[in-house]
Design goal:
The structure is a homodimer.
Chain A: E1 2-3, H1 21-30, H2 37-48, E2 53-54, H3 55-61, H4 69-81, E3 85-89, E4 95-99, E5 111-114, E6 120-122, E7 139-150, H5 152-159
Parallel strand pairs in A: 1-7, 5-7
Antiparallel strand pairs in A: 2-4, 3-4, 5-6
Helix pairs in contact in A: 1-2, 2-4
The complex binds manganese (II) ion (2 copies) and zinc ion (2 copies).
One zinc ion binds near residues 114, 116, 117, 119 and 154 of chain A.
The first copy, chain A, binds a DNA duplex through helix 2 and helix 4.
Chain lengths: ~160, ~160
DNA sequence: TGTTAATATGCAACAGAGTTGCATATGTAT
DNA sequence: ATACATATGCAACTCTGTTGCATATTAACA
């Protein structure tokens, strides 16, 4: 199995906010995608976002451009299938999109999800455990880890409960 | 952080299929839940399921009992909040439910998700990497790991593609 | 720089998993 | 057996995401 760690990719891309339209078009062309207004704009916003971003957020940020709701969905699907962005579903049934391989401070670490209140916490201080090579012919581009259980807040509430 | 590995729980429960109503009622009582017909039936089906199960499947299997669709949802939410079952979302926006701590052959291992075709593959031959203790006051009951990338099938299709 | 064929977009209608309000039925403590 | 709290059934609803189709844009090419 080919393991491409997120740290290996896009390392030259420090000046994220300064990523200009020409660079974005280059990314699209490299993926054999037509450079349309919507794709450039959506990708621009994603490149400037520190965390994985919902469709709703993207559409809001682009409302000045007049882009249609459905187009945002279709652009995201296209970018995802081309491997430029990827989708994350963290337990609330809402997709979040992030540029692949970028160091998203809100993303590249394990997450803890409380089964009681549903809150998601970032375990930023803990590195993703390394995954051993597992099979030929599979290209691994991203890895996610979720810990599920009870958060301290809910734990104390449960302790004070006689019955339910 | 308290780490409860799935192997540590429910180890005495080998005779899964034979788990009878009395035992199921005991589980509910222990969680301070009322023993209702719906809860007993839903939990029974879950205990007999080798893999995490959708609401649709559960409702189908229980259609003989006349239980209502909404009740199944509510029972699942109750069981989940009590820590008896947990929810998994594997990328198709459909919840799957599994009894916590049981060795589900379809579940307790990393999973690979192809970003092109969306297919989910079980990496059964690879153990879940151990997670270091990460923080006080958090109770970890389950852990999930997803690898995302391109499956061999899609990789060969992409290779044969000139443009898109 | 036009012309053309492929493909992306806007719009409206739709899909479908899951939720909510409320009247009624059921479980459990006494 | 009674009373109270809570679980259930039913219908209507939410909300994220999809689809069909007519029109607009893109990019290759003359
Ligand atoms: Mn995070
Ligand atoms: Mn599996
Ligand atoms: Zn919590
Ligand atoms: Zn695939």
């Amino acid at each position: 199995m080919i393991l491409i760690h997120w740290r290996d990719n896009f390392t030259a891309r420090q000046n994220d906010a300064a990523m200009n339209e020409k660079n974005i078009r280059a990314i699209l062309r490299k993926a054999n995608l037509r450079c349309t207004r919507g794709r450039v704009d959506v990708l621009q916003v994603l490149l400037e976002s520190p965390d994985p971003t919902t469709h709703e957020d993207l559409h809001k940020k682009l409302q000045g451009t007049g882009i249609n709701r459905v187009t945002v969905y279709r652009v995201l699907e296209t970018l995802q299938k081309s491997g430029i962005v990827h989708r994350v579903e963290a337990g609330d049934r809402i997709w979040r999109f992030a540029v692949c391989g970028r160091m998203h401070p809100g993303h590249c670490h394990p997450h803890f999800i409380c089964r009681q209140c549903g809150k998601i916490e970032c375990l930023k201080e803990f590195p993703m455990p390394d995954m051993p090579s597992v099979a030929k012919d599979y290209t691994v581009e991203e890895q996610e880890m979720y810990l599920r259980g009870i958060c301290p807040n809910c734990a104390s509430k449960i302790k004070n409960l006689k019955c339910k």
